[in-house]
Every structure is written in structure tokens, then in C-alpha cells.
Amino acid sequence: MATSKAQTSAVRLEGITKRFGDVVANDDIDFTLERGEVHALLGENGSGKTTLMSVLYGLYDQNAGTIHVDGEPRSFDSPRDAMDAGVGMIHQHFQLVEPMTVLQNVVLGHEPTENGLVDESAARAEIEEISSRYDFDVDEYLDTPVRDLDLGTRQRVEIVKSLYRGAEILILDEPTAVLTPQEVEGLFDVMDELTAAGRSLIFITHKLDEGLTAADRVTVLRDGAAVGTVPADGTTEQELARMMVGREILFDRQPRETNPGDPVLEAAELRVRGDRGLERVTDVDLTVREGEILGIAGVQGNGQTELAEALTGLRPVESGTVRFGGEDITGMSRRRRIEAGIAYVPEDRQTEGLVQDYDLVRNALLGNQTIEPYASGGFVDWTAVREHAENIVEEYDVQPPNPDTEASSLSGGNQQKFIVGREIEHDPDVIVAAHPTRGVDIGSIEFIHDRLLELREAGLAIVFVSSKLEEIQKLSDRIAVMYEGEFIDTADPEDVTEEELGLLMAGHRHEADDESAADATEDAPEGGASS
Amino acid sequence: MSLVENARGTRVRVGIAAALLVLAAVLAVQLDVPVADIVTVGFIERALQAAAPIALAAIGGLYAEKSGVFNIGLEGFMIFGAANTAAFVWFFGGESVTQGDLWLAILASVAVSLVYTVIFAVLLIRYKADQIVAGLAVWFLGLGFGPFTAVLLWGNRNSPRLASMNDVTVPALAEIPILGRLLFDASPLVLLTAVLAVAAWVFLYHTRYGYWLQAAGENPEALDTAGISVTRVRYAAVLFSGAMAGLGGAVLLAHAGSFTGTGDTMVNGRGWIGIVAYLFGNYNPLGAAAAALLFGGLDMLQIQFQTAGIQLPNRLVNLFPYVAVVVVLTIWGSTRMPSAVGESYESEE
Amino acid sequence: MSGSDSSRGRAALDRAAARMLNASVLQRLAIATASTALALVVGLVVVAAAGYDPIDFIANVFEGAFGDDAAVSRTLKFTTIFILTGVAVAIAFRAGVFNIGVQGQFVVGGFATVMSILWLAPFLPENAVGGVGLIVLGTLAGIVAGGAYAALPGVLKAYGGANEIITTIMLNFIAVGVVGWLVEGPLRGEGNRAPNTERIPEYVEFPSIVYDSPDFSVVGLAVALAVVVIVAVVVARTRFGYDMVTSGHQESAATYSGVDAKRTIVTTMAFSGMVAGVAGAVFAIMIQGYYSDPSGVGTYGFDAIAVSLLAANNPVGVVPAGLLFGGLDSAGAHIGLNSDVPVQLIDGIVGLVVLFVSAPELFRMAAARTGLGGDDR
């Protein structure tokens, strides 16, 4: 039995296809995990990595394809089934009960008992054994509530939990996303220990260097399909970046004139805290001028959201200043900023940008409550608002073209076109657009891009946040790359390659520019200098 | 939840309680209040009796909320508990009620409360009823059907004098000063409450079911992926909460000896105070019981004021617990609820 | 033949039911009707189980609610108060704030009205003009008092994090206790045996039009309907209403649009309490003429929660819902005099209505189970 086990792969996925409605998230993917290896699954956001692993873990049913675990065909209806077969998954969002202690979390659902009470000493002994076998170093926290632990320790607790439940195969979903560099080191050590003991690991990531460092083999996914599998030894980050991004350039950058005018929106030494009280924006300086688009590139979760919210007045600033047309607006309320002409296409159109169970007429008023002619003297002029809604629907090609439709029944692309239309139509001076094309169909993307470029021509200042390389390159006059809360570099979209941008977003500074840690406030924008 | 975990919160709570006591002491000295006449053994005994129903409802309520279901119907279940106990006493004992009849009536009443709670739980969990609105409905139902029962049986919203629970006296030990009277010459229902509070604490923090309960309210997904049915855990917790609130009402009746159905009935907000008691007790059964004792003491102050010859209008003194609730909630308003309270949970399976 | 007929009929029924399930207004109306009907049925079962004649009971209900002029004017009297308190609740619930304290705000408002009229009466002429003046001033006092008493838990929630459900319930008890103490002692009318304030002057009253009843006037009902119109306009046509309702629907979107969530909580509560204050004023002026121990004034503020829920928290929907509850209460008064069935049953039925309204899923599933509504649902 042991020999036959050794010969078979730990996991073999063949021809996995998973569709959500019309969207193909996984397209005929083959994937093999050998015993005792770390296999990295590399791809951009939305390339289908997590979907594939959720199929393996029993969270989704595949539309086609087979799963073999230890050589046996399996189909998991639930994570519980997967767990029983020795497959454990460490999610990006930890499945931990924060107020409960580490010990309680690890044994949850599998508690040893004696006389009806949980046998804490037996549990303790077993966890300590696991912890010491793999150098997890969680012994001292056994009685600490998870809430009081840093994220790296929480992650180790999750791994201990999986091992306690007998996992032989571990799926780590973007495990480094929430960790500090030191914690990442620690995680890689733990991964080495685990594979040395014969466990097999799947490591989901979009960071090239991590894939190379931690994995034995790397499989790259792009747009739901497997591009290829390569051994980590003998490949380079450039090679991986090329596989990840692909050759096809979807969007061509048109040659253009750049004539930026006066600065409109400026930020200096901005520090902003996130929801959990951690600093998410560190010392950011930026300037955006009339008639230019400042692209902010970065992998999601590197502080772009917090930055956008601080600029638009939705999030208080820890320190630093925000200026608008030369005036200090750091403490100005959201409503006053709207009135002053700062428009915001929010990252989350579902919960922020639209009220889901309002029709489009009522949604057309959102943010315009104090703007003439839609409201005056405290009263709403619904006729004007309806006209406004009809205009947006027509001009921005919102389908179905009926302003009485409930927002929730619109597709993502149409919702987004509506929001963009609403934000643009009341003639702002600056637009902060956060991921305006995420989850939007290709036609709507083009449409939104064209509108933003038109506005730029018309002299608006635009801050454009995106994690998609092509569109950042296509639209921006200057690109600032954000990584872990900082602008680590700026790039000229005319002569930076996607590979270079991808490396920057993964935290690699330009060798040459490293000294002059750049910010986005160059007096003469690079694009302007070159033209 | 470990002791370590809440050390900080507990310190703040104890701090608030201590500050209130010091304030009371300073006031007492300043105003020359005869403290010895107020804090008597009899007062403590009465406070314990007044606290028992609140503590029982509070413990039930905190179990439900720990599991992720806000049972705001505690007040209503208490009214049902009291009214049904009175009805059963009348039914079993008629004119001459024995202590045995009383116990039997309490048991039967709790059983009926359990049946009501089954319906309530199915509405909340299976049919995803709005927890707040459904809980209020239970209160309205109690306010209607409690007195309705009384009128059916006695032709009046209030019952005649039925029977009250006798103290259990342990012959020799009862002679011990103070403690003897509190522990060995006390209402068995107070002792039962104390036992239940301790048992609820042990169960919550030291059994696997307690672990599941906590996980169900904090991170149901974590419990689900551990292979435990969140729904079952929540059903169990809600049923327990209804039974405990019913028992609270029964105890209230057994101490009072007759049912009052006028105004907001004899329960008169004790279920609501129970909710605040467990919030103030930070969802810890022992903390909730202690908070209940605080409110019970406030409730009994008027008798002490009278005997001590302090002239304060009854009606105002009676408001002390309610005022205390508002003050406590405001100072301690940001009590952290279990994160998944109020959200219905559907398993991925 | 008949088979195809019935299947065609069934298909039509399916389509109708499907439309009902999809259209939210119709759906709410259906749920409200079903809840009420189900509650009445359960009530009748209880009546039968308790050994009374359910037919007799239901006959008494209708007779008591609409049997003659006196019954109708009594129904409209209760309806007036239910509409006002119901609208007060609807305002808060629409904005996602659970103001359970309308009863307390109603009591405080009504008491303030009576006291201000008693205090101001000597300064105004003792005639109809003075009466109107006192009504206006007294109502204003009620509005201010009710609004302030509601703003308090609003502030405690917005800035202290205190759960408004519990604080408003506690403030109900406190309002009843304090006003009860005041009318018992310090502010009891001279020579009154009962714990009541003095009567307000006789010329301070609504004129009797259409119905000749001492405690109902069409003017009172008109005030209630005017308040409904005002609130409906504020909710639907003003910026404040839009901000408020948007906060209730989706707070994150409201914040995105520049709404200050905390301040909205306080203003919503104050607005809700002001309407409760109007209810208290109308109750005091039209029905009582003095203020008595509030533990006996009736639970209009609590039943209002049911009224509002039944109306899906829509101010206009509160009118028919208020009429239903007015009818039920009026029937209760009739039954109390003309039947052996304990009148508390009516309170129980109110509870059942609320219980069923809380679980719309129950009816949706029932509709789906019976196959009504078709498959695409």
C-alpha cells in the first residue's frame, strides 16, 4: 500500500471546467501535485486559481473533469469530505473563531473529551507535538485568543488545525498576502518542514518571486486556462511574467498629446489607516493635474482603496494633507468634497456605488443630494433627477435602457457604466476611479476607457486605480506603482513593458531608481518631458 | 472564551461597578443615609430572589446570542412562563396547593415554554424571520395571552393568591450568622439558579458543545468546515433560551405566589433587563448572574428605603433598574456582540 | 373539458401569483393580508378551544368595529392614534433605526401637551380663539417633548453605541414611571381623587363634525392624515428623506453619497419622536382632556410597531393598517361589554400579526410549496 501510494500523485486534476453562468472560470485545466512537493499556482487576479482549488476542496462542483486523490477518483460534496480524504485548505480569510483560544480553535469539531468535558491536556499534548515536529512555534499561544495574534501566527494556527485534522495535502490560498516579509520567511520555513515530512502543498500566489522561491514546480493560469507547468529551477521571473500576462495586448495605447495644466488634486506625506487600524497608506505624495491621468498600479490590497477613500473624503487621514485646487481639504467632509467637484467611482459598486433595491432614477440622486438642479431648498426635483437618469442611460448605453429598472437587476458592466455616467455628468474637476472596469464585460471596458480619455482631453484630472497592467498602460500619462502602502516607483507608460510593471507590482524596485525612491509628484511629468 | 481573553474587559466592568459602589458610599455618607438599615441580610435575601428570574432569562438569552441568534423575545417567554405556571398550579392544586404541585407546575410550564420556543426557533432559523420583529411579537403575544389565560381561569387579569415556594431550611447550618440565612434557609429556586449559572458556565467554556456554540455565533463557517451543523447548534441554543426564560417566569411566580396581569404584567421588563444583564456580564453566565444580582438589588431598594425611613416615592425608586440599564448601556454600549448574530447561515453543502 | 379549464385556470393563477411574488408592493400587501387572516384564524381557534363560539366572536368583532355610528366613531378614534403612532414607527424603521420607544414618546408628548395647556390657559382669552391657540401651543409642546425624548436614545446610539431597542424600551418604563409619579403627586389636579391632572379648559377641544362623539372628532383624523401627507412628502420628496431612507437601505451607499450616518440616526429618532408627540397631543386633547396614570392609557405606541410593519413601513400604507387596528381595538371594547371572551385575546391577535409579518419567507415558501407562482420563482 505504501509503495503504491508513493507511486501515485497526491492530486491529479484532469480537464477541470467550471462555469459561472456564461463566464468560464476554469477551462479544461490539468494539474498534478506530486507527493512531497510544493506546487505553485501562479496567475493574476481572476485567472481562476482560487476557483480551481475550490473545486478540489469541495466548495464548487466542476462542470466537467475528474479529481484523483492518492490515485483514487474522488468527488467532494463539501469541505468536510475533502478533509476526510486528507485535503486541507488555508483560506485567505482564516476560518478561525477570533475570541476563542488557539487550542479551542485547533480542536473545534474534533475535541478529545473526558467525562463530558473537553480534555484540554490531551489536546494540548497533541498540538504541542505537532507544533514542535514542524517548528510551528505556537505552543506559547495555546491559551491566547486568536484575536490577539498577529496574522502570521494565525496562519500557523490554521495550518496546525489542518494537520490536527489529518491533512496530508494542504492548499494555501495567497498565504503571503497578509504577511510581513519576516512572516513570509517563517512561512516558507514551515512549508519546507512540511514537505520534508512527506506532505504535499499547493501554493496559490500571484507574486512571481515567491512562486520561484517556495515552489518546486510552477503552473501558470491565465484567463481560466493553464498556460503551462515549469520547474522552478531553471526558469526566471521574466519568463513567468511573460506566461502570466500573455502576448496578446488587448488594448492599444494611442499616441497622444500631453499638456497637463495646473495641479488639481495633491496629497503630501499621506498616512491612512485601514479598517483594522493598521497603516495601509504610508507617506504617499501625489499630484494630478488638469488634463492628465495618473495611473495607480498595484496588486489589490496594497493600500489603493484606502488612498482613494482618503482622497475622496470617505476615510479620515492619519497625517499629511490633501489639497484641492490649492486649498487644504484634509478635514473636509465627503459631502463638501462632492459639492466642490471631486467625483469618485468607488471600488465596490454593489455596496457603495449603488443602492441595490433602488431603481436607476433614485440611484441617479445618490451623491447629488445637494446639487442643483436635482435638489434645491431641501426638496428633490424628481423630474430633473429622472431626466438625469434617462440621460445617463442613453449616453452611457446602459442596458436595459429603462430608468425604472432596479439597480440589482443590471449586469456588472451596466451598473458600472451607470455609476461612471452619474459621476461624470455633474461636471467634476477631478475623478478618482477605483478599478472601474473590474468584473465588467469587454465592450463596457472599452466604453469606460474612451470616456475617461475624452474627459482627459476636456481637461479633467483623473486618478485611475487598477491592477490590470494593460489598461493602466493604455490610459495613464504617468504610472505610480503602489506596494504595501507606498509608491515604490513611477513609470512612463510609453516605455515601460508589462513585464517590468508586473515585477514592480510584485515589489521589485527598479535597480537604477532604487536610490531616488520615487514619488508621483515630479514637477515635469515624464510623459510631458518626452513629448 | 478564556479568562485571559476578557481580562481587560472584565477589569473595566469591575471598575465601573466599583466606581458605582464608591459613589453610592460617598453619597450615603454625605447624605447621612443609614447604610446598616439598608444593606441587611433580609435585603440580600430579597435581592437574590429578585435576581433569580433575571439571571435565568439572561443565561438563556446569552446562549442564544452566543450561537448567533438574538432572542429578543425573553420578556415574552417570561410572561408565558409565569402565566402558565400559575395556570398549572391552579390546575394541579386547586384550593390547597402543596409544594409538590408547585414544582410540578414549574416543570410543566417549562415544558410548554419549550414547545412555544420550537415554533419560534423554526420561524427564526428555517424561515429566516426577522429576529427583532419576531422577538417583539413574542412579547406582544405574552402581553396578550398571559392575561388572557388569567381572565379565562379567574375572570380577572390577576390570579388569586395561589402558593409560593417555601424556603428550604437546613436545621443546624441555618443558625450560622448571615451565610446560614442566605444559603441554608433560602429559596430552593435561588439555589437552583446559582447551580444553573455555574453549570452554564462550565458547559459553555469546557465542553465541546460550548465550543460549538461559541463558534456558531462568531464564525459559523469555521464550525461548518469542521463538520458541525450550525443549524442544529442554533436550534439547541434557542430552545434552551426559551426554556430558561420560561423558567425565569416560573420562578418569578413561585416567589410572588400569584399572577399579576395588569399593566406590563408581573414580568414588567425583567426580560429586557435580562438582555442588558448578559451584555453587562459580557456574555459570561457568571457575569450575567452577577449583573442580575445588581439589578435585583436595585429592584428591592424601595423596601429598604421604606424600612430605613427614607422618603422617596416608590414609583421613582422602582425606576432605578431601568435607569441603571440605560446608564450601563451607554457607558458600556460598545459591548462586542458575537460577529454573526442576526445573520442566517446557509451551509455550502 | 373541465380538466383543461382547470389547468388554464391554474396557469392564470400561477401567473397572478408569480406577479405577486415579483412585484414588491403587491407582495407586501399579500403578506400583510395573509398575516392578518392567519392571525385571525389562530385567534378563532383559541376562542373555540377556550370553549366560546367563534362565529359569535367574529360577529361581535365586526359589529364592534363597524356596527353602528358609535362603533364607527370609536374605530376612527383609535385609528387616528394608530395612524399617528404608526407613522412615527415607520419613519424610524424606514431608516433602519429600531425606535421601540414610541409609547414613551407618546406619553411624554401627551403629558407635555396637557401641562403646557394648563399653564398657558390663563394667558389666553377663554374662547374658541384662545382654544385654538392653546391647541397649537400644546401640540407644539408635545412635538418638542416627544422629539427630545426620542433624540436622547438616538444620541446614545450614535455616539455611545447603546442599542436603541433596549434603551427605548427602558425609556418607555421610565416615561410611564415618572409621569405616573407626577400625576399621582406633584401635579395631581386639586381635589382629584384619581391620580389625574386637572382637566384642560372645555373650550380647548376639536369641534364635533359628522360624528357627535365626546372623544372623537374628524378634525383629529384630519390632523393624522395631514401628518401622513407631510411625512410621505418628507420621505419621498426631500433630501432629508432620501438620506434617511438610503441609510436604512444600505448604509455604505449613504456614506458614499455624503450622508453623515451618526447625525442621521439622531435626526431620524427626533423626527419619529416628534410625530409620536403629535399622537400624544391628539390623544390628550381629543380623547382624554387631562392626563392620567400612563400605565393605563393604552399601548398605542407598541401596537404601532405592528401597524407600521403591516404597512411595510410605508407612511401611506399606515392608513389602512391603522384602520385595521382601530377596528380591532374598537371590537375589543365592544367585546369587553357584550361577550364573555376575554378582550386580551385582541392583544394576542396583534402579537400573532406581528409574528407572521416577521417571517415573509413563511408565505413565500408556502406559495412555492403549493406550486403557485410557477417554476421560475
How does the SSE layout of this entry go?
The complex is a heterotrimer of chains A (531), B (349) and C (377).
Chain A: H1 2-7, E1 11-20, E2 23-33, E3 38-42, H2 49-56, E4 64-69, E5 72-74, H3 79-84, E6 87-90, H4 102-107, E7 113-114, E8 117-118, H5 120-133, H6 151-164, E9 169-173, H7 181-196, E10 200-205, H8 208-214, E11 217-222, E12 225-231, H9 237-245, E13 263-273, E14 279-289, E15 292-297, H10 304-312, E16 319-324, E17 327-328, H11 334-340, E18 342-345, H12 349-353, H13 360-364, E19 375-376, E20 379-380, H14 382-395, H15 412-425, E21 430-434, H16 442-457, E22 461-466, H17 469-475, E23 478-483, E24 486-491, H18 498-505, H19 526-530
Parallel strand pairs in A: 3-10, 3-11, 6-9, 9-10, 15-22, 15-23, 18-21, 21-22
Antiparallel strand pairs in A: 1-2, 1-4, 4-5, 7-8, 11-12, 13-14, 13-16, 16-17, 19-20, 23-24
Helix pairs in contact in A: 9-18, 14-15, 15-16
Chain B: H1 7-30, H2 35-38, H3 41-66, H4 74-93, H5 99-126, H6 131-154, E1 168-169, H7 179-183, E2 185-186, H8 188-206, H9 208-218, H10 220-225, H11 230-256, H12 270-280, H13 285-307, H14 314-317, H15 320-331
Helix pairs in contact in B: 3-8, 3-11, 3-12, 3-13, 4-5, 4-6, 4-11, 4-12, 5-11, 8-9, 9-11, 12-13, 12-15, 13-15
Chain C: H1 2-22, H2 24-49, H3 54-66, H4 69-94, H5 102-120, H6 128-160, H7 164-184, H8 218-237, H9 239-249, H10 251-256, H11 261-288, H12 300-310, H13 318-338, H14 344-358, H15 360-369
Helix pairs in contact in C: 1-2, 2-3, 2-14, 3-4, 3-13, 4-8, 4-11, 4-12, 4-13, 5-6, 5-7, 5-11, 5-12, 6-7, 6-11, 8-9, 8-11, 12-13, 12-14, 13-14
How would you characterize the overall build of this protein?
The complex is a heterotrimer of chains A (531), B (349) and C (377). With 531 residues, chain A is of the alpha/beta class. Helix content of chain A is 33%, strand content 25%. Chain A folds into 4 domains: 165 residues, 3-Layer(aba) Sandwich (Rossmann fold), CATH 3.40.50; 75 residues, no CATH class; 154 residues, P-loop containing nucleotide triphosphate hydrolases (Rossmann fold, 3-Layer(aba) Sandwich); 86 residues, P-loop containing nucleotide triphosphate hydrolases (Rossmann fold), CATH 3.40.50.300. A 6-stranded mixed beta sheet of chain A has the order 6-9-10-3-11-12, with helices on both faces. Chain A has a 6-stranded mixed beta sheet with strand order 18-21-22-15-23-24, with helices on both faces. In chain A, strands 2-1-4-5 form a 4-stranded antiparallel beta sheet, covered by helices on one side. In chain A, a hairpin with a 2-residue loop joins strand 19 and strand 20. In chain A, helix 15 packs parallel to helix 16. Chain A starts with a helix and ends with a helix. Chain B is mainly alpha-helical. Chain B has a single domain, classed as ABC transporter involved in vitamin B12 uptake, BtuC, CATH 1.10.3470. In chain B, 70% of the residues lie in helices and 1% in strands. Chain B is globular, with a radius of gyration of 20 Å. Chain C folds into 2 domains: 73 residues, no CATH class; 287 residues, Orthogonal Bundle (ABC transporter involved in vitamin B12 uptake, BtuC). In chain C, helix 3 packs across helix 4, helix 4 packs antiparallel against helix 11 and helix 8 packs across helix 9. Chain C is globular, with a radius of gyration of 22 Å. The N terminus and C terminus of chain C are likely disordered. Chains A and C meet through helix 11, helix 12 and strand 20 of A and helix 9 and helix 10 of C.
